[in-house]
Write a structure and sequence with these properties.
With 986 residues, this protein is mainly α. The protein has a 5-stranded mixed beta sheet with strand order 8-7-6-9-10, sandwiched between helices. A two-stranded antiparallel sheet has the order 1-2. Strands 3-4 form a two-stranded antiparallel ribbon.
């Protein structure tokens, strides 16, 4: 492949592939009456057909017919039928492509339909436009799509593919060089010298400073914190924060940072200064943000561990002293009985007590009880003092390296942190009595403030840093240089841009709706539902209203036995396959592997590289790892796969590959039996992690091992269209919107299901504003609180016990514009939905925008629950959607058989590679099964009658016919192997 050629021969064929499916032919090649009138003016069937084919291909895909060696028979037949031409193949062969007739016809098409030839001036103009787009995103596929769109919009007859590739190559080169120059001219000589030192060969045969900087930390310990901050301080010494990014698009900057992170020091030494310093600086600037967040995460985990150990120590004390405490309680009861008896009989209480216990024994017992007694509020803070020396290993470093700010200049927490910095810097041993303490909860104050009003330095330090963690999580305090802990307003579209943005109406359908109009509309919706329930509640056999509670009967099973029998029969007909064979065949059908472009060159894998790519996907997705896969795969080595993993398995490639597979399934006829791609569900799959990792957490529900969760989004067609790795102990609701907004599929998701963990009032609100219908399966729905908006329940007193809450409409009216700005920021990608949702969830009523969004969510939740209880088909739809997600996770667990299902990846990017690779394997199996199940359905239909309504219950996620184990062979793909489907096992 020459330098300016960006695509392989196979990829060019894919871009120029002509449609053959009936619905695509109808969409692209149906002529109007006017078209047919023009076409039929030409003499003879040959000329009419030739002219019509030229016109059809210029319209779609855009090239003239001279660029195509063969025209598919279905296409010729479809066009010929409209013209009344018989024997279209023979007629088209007689069309004189190389003669004047062809060019006369093309000129006539240009003149009549205003199509234009692509000239040199157009080449330059389009290259300039592509360069502008490449400044934002220089991925080859992205630029090719823009190129095609511009050519179609401006009515050009497409130039040859090589011309288009050359334009894109030039645009990428010019844009890249311009970005490099924007950076390079800002570097001082001192910065250049220091960057060169990072990649200089080490004198002691150890890793370079560049390699050391990128190592990060997977542990959560004081030592890990200090190592992390050493790297952070090394990056800060470069003073890269002084570089201006105002002319660099954020998306392009992220691409530069990711690319810089993939190169080793030896590669940088070969680069030009412009490229070298730009890529290094971009990656280090991203690393700096990562390390700030990771450092604070370590601190958060240390505080959590401190509290956890305190609680466990208290529990242990209770267990150890349980017998003694029980004895003292019995003694107390006996003494109490003596006192009550003495008072009743007007006797001397002391004499009565001494009948049970001597005075000396009483005094001894009281002293022993003092040693057993715990604080009145039964806290554990007195038991954590022994851990202070352990935390002191990193606290001075935290105070020195992290900078905390607050929008409130009088924030007492930041004042206390500043005081601690001074105390540590000056080496003082005491804290003055005038230190800020008002922010401390009561439970801390009694340990921080001594009886003589002096300050206990150790407790003050730990209490302050514990409250600092709480205030950062609540959004009251930001950390400079952080990505996850900025001031709330910094995450949103700037206020000065919001008015113009809202008028442009590019993000939300609610942009021009006033708060009052919204409330009036939803109030009417609530009234309508209450009216319907009043008229029909007696007919709702599975719903009861008892004592102010909603009681829902459990849904009976939906899958009939006949469907299970049909599923078994169809799967028995499928050929027995190896997973490798399925991957290769699906790759041939869909070309999903072409999206794994090289990060540095943007070139897709060659035919020789594709087997290595598929082997790498399997190694990661099945969790057997590259080493084991190299041992089990002839002709594919560990080093080949390691190279593919480093340079081709990037996030953008994973998303596009998944989207290609999902779109392929959506186009299959059988998939329409399961759904139309408009509904989806999301659920988590827990994965144990057996190595130190910052995001690995304990959860008693899953046993003693730490782990993380793969949160997966599944369409109603059983396609897994997005996945991400999240903390096990984080509520799913934080991540529900990510998959709906970030997937790159053609699915039109309108309704989304989760279980209880996926729902909060704020999620209801944001889902509504972004145009999705949210439908969670809420556990204990009878306990859910419903809200009225404008006194609607007064007209329907039968529901006053159920709808007990009152929406704060004043909050909505006051902050409606800010809520819309928040929703638009999420829609436009200004801030990730999971990040902003985690911030909103932690505010605990202190953020007015969060409170207003919650009030909107309460309205939408109330309307949803009334719909949910009113319609059994709706409840079944939700239940069915969630079941599809559970089936997908079951296949995921079966595929992830390597290393006993335990993940051994420390870093989040590597964990994401595993999760995305697993998702691709799931979708590849779903795609293959869908195609062959459809073939089996046709075969069965010819053999015997069956109820085709049962097909909606057939899942494409079965794997009994697939062999996951054994030797893995990925021979160079031979097109002849895939010219037809394999025979069924019948």
């Amino acid at each position: 492949m020459r330098r300016q050629e960006l695509f392989t021969a196979e990829q060019r064929q894919e871009w120029m592939r002509l449609p053959t499916e009936r619905r695509d032919l109808e969409r692209h090649y149906t002529f109007s009456k006017e078209d047919l009138s023009y076409i039929k003016r030409h003499r003879g069937a040959v000329n009419r057909l030739g002219y019509a084919v030229q016109l059809a291909l210029v319209r779609f895909p855009g090239w003239s017919s001279i660029h195509f060696i063969d025209i598919p028979t279905p296409l010729l037949t479809f066009i010929a039928k409209q013209l009344g031409v018989t024997a279209p193949i023979r007629a088209f062969r007689q069309y004189p492509i190389r003669e004047n007739t062809y060019w006369e016809h093309q000129k006539e098409i240009r003149d009549r339909y205003a199509y234009r030839l692509f000239q040199v001036s157009d080449y330059r103009k389009l290259t300039r436009l592509l360069r502008q787009h490449a400044m934002e995103n220089n991925h080859t596929y992205h630029l090719m799509q823009i190129c095609l769109q511009e050519l179609r919009t401006n009515q050009f007859i497409f130039p040859p593919m090589l011309t288009m590739e050359r334009m894109i190559w030039e645009a990428r080169e010019k844009a890249t060089n311009h970005v490099y120059s924007l950076f390079f001219k800002q570097f001082s000589l001192q910065q250049q010298k220091r960057l060169d030192q990072l990649i200089a060969p080490p004198s002691d045969n150890r890793i370079t400073t560049w390699g050391w900087l990128k190592e990060g930390s997977g542990k959560s310990s004081p030592e890990a914190f200090i190592q992390l901050t050493h790297r952070l301080e090394c990056i800060r010494e470069l003073r890269l924060s002084e570089l201006s990014l105002k002319h660099i698009h954020p998306a392009r900057f992220r691409q530069l940072a990711q690319l810089g992170g993939r190169y080793k020091a030896t590669a940088f030494r070969r680069f030009s200064p412009e490229k070298k310093y730009t890529l290094m600086a971009a990656h280090l600037m991203e690393l700096s943000q990562d390390y700030v967040d990771q450092a604070f995460d370590i601190h958060t985990k240390q505080i959590q561990t401190l509290q956890s150990k305190g609680k466990k120590k208290q529990e242990l004390l209770q267990q150890q002293n349980g017998k003694k405490i029980n004895e003292k309680l019995h003694q107390f009861v006996e003494i109490g009985a003596c006192l009550m008896e003495a008072k009743k009989n007007q006797q001397n209480p002391y004499l009565e007590i001494e009948k049970k216990i001597s005075w000396e024994e009483m005094i001894t017992s009281i002293e022993e009880t003092k040693g057993l007694i715990r604080p009145k509020n039964y806290d554990y803070l007195d038991l954590i003092a022994s851990r202070f020396s352990y935390l002191r290993k990193y606290i001075p470093t935290l105070l020195r390296t992290l900078e905390f700010t607050s929008m409130d200049k009088n924030n007492p927490v930041t004042a206390a942190v500043t005081l601690l910095k001074e105390v540590n810097l000056e080496g003082k041993r005491t804290i003055t009595p005038d230190a800020p303490v008002d922010f401390l909860p009561k439970k801390w104050k009694k340990y921080v403030i001594n009886k003589d009003q002096s300050i206990n330095k150790a407790y003050y330090e730990i209490a302050t840093l514990s409250e600092l963690r709480n205030h950062v999580r609540a959004g009251n305090i930001a950390i400079e240089g952080s990505r996850s802990h900025k001031n709330f307003d910094d995450y949103l579209i700037p206020k000065e841009e919001w008015d113009d943005f809202r008028k442009a109406d590019v993000a939300l359908s609610m942009n021009h709706v006033a708060a009052e109009a919204y409330l009036q509309d939803r109030s009417q919706a609530l009234t309508d539902r209450l009216q319907w329930l009043t008229e029909n509640k007696e007919a709702l056999q599975s719903v009861q209203f008892e004592n102010g509670r909603i009681a829902l009967q459990r849904l009976e099973k939906e899958t009939p036995d006949e469907a299970k029998q049909l599923s078994h029969k169809l799967y028995q007909m499928l050929p027995k396959m190896k997973l490798t064979e399925i991957l290769m065949e699906v790759a041939h059908w869909t070309q999903f592997d072409t999206h794994f472009t090289h990060t540095a060159t943007s070139k897709s894998p060659s035919s020789e590289e594709k087997p290595v790519l598929l082997a790498t996907l399997m190694a990661l997705g099945t969790n057997i790892g590259l080493t084991k896969m190299g041992d089990a795969t002839p002709d594919v080595t560990y080093f080949q796969m390691a190279n593919v993993r480093q340079w081709r398995m990037h996030e953008d490639a994973m998303l596009k590959a998944q989207a290609t597979l999902v779109n392929f399934v959506s186009q299959q006829k059988l998939a329409t039996c399961w759904g139309d791609g408009s509904t989806s569900s999301s659920d988590g799959m827990r994965v144990p992690i057996s190595v130190p990792a910052l995001n690995a957490e304990h959860n008693p529900h899953y046993g003693s091992k730490k782990g993380a969760t793969i949160y997966r989004f599944v369409s109603d067609q059983y396609s897994s269209f997005y996945s991400k790795v999240i903390h096990t102990n984080t509520r799913d609701a934080v991540h529900v919107l990510d998959g709906l907004l970030l997937n790159e599929t053609e699915l039109n998701i309108q309704e989304h299901y989760t279980d209880t963990a996926g729902y909060t009032d704020q999620v209801f609100g944001l889902m509504f504003l972004l145009g999705f219908r949210f439908a969670p399966r809420i556990r204990d729905i009878s306990d859910a609180k419903l809200f009225q908006i404008m006194g609607e329940v007064e007209a329907y007193p039968d529901f006053s016990d159920i709808i007990r809450g009152q929406v704060n409409t004043a909050s909505i009216v006051t902050h409606f514009d800010d809520v819309l700005r928040l929703a638009a920021s999420v829609k436009e990608g200004t801030v990730a939905s999971s990040l902003i949702m985690s911030k909103l969830r932690s505010y605990k009523g202190q953020n007015k925008v969060a409170m207003a969004l919650q009030e909107i969510g309460r309205i939408e939740k109330t309307l949803f629950i009334l719909d949910y209880i009113s319609s059994e088909p709706f409840r079944r739809r939700v239940h069915r959607g969630l079941n599809k997600g559970e089936l997908t996770n079951a296949l995921g667990r079966a595929l992830s058989f390597g290393k006993k299902g335990e993940l051994r990846e420390r870093s989040l990017p590597n964990q994401l590679q595993y999760a995305s690779s697993l998702n691709i394997l799931i979708n590849a199996i779903s795609a293959w099964n869908t195609v062959y199940l459809e073939k089996a359905v046709h075969a069965l239909r010819e053999k015997e009658p069956f109820d085709e309504a049962l097909l909606e219950h057939i899942s494409p996620l079965g794997w009994e016919h697939i062999n996951f184990l054994g030797e893995y062979r990925f021979p160079t793909i031979d097109e002849k192997l895939f010219q037809s489907l394999k025979p069924l096992d019948i």
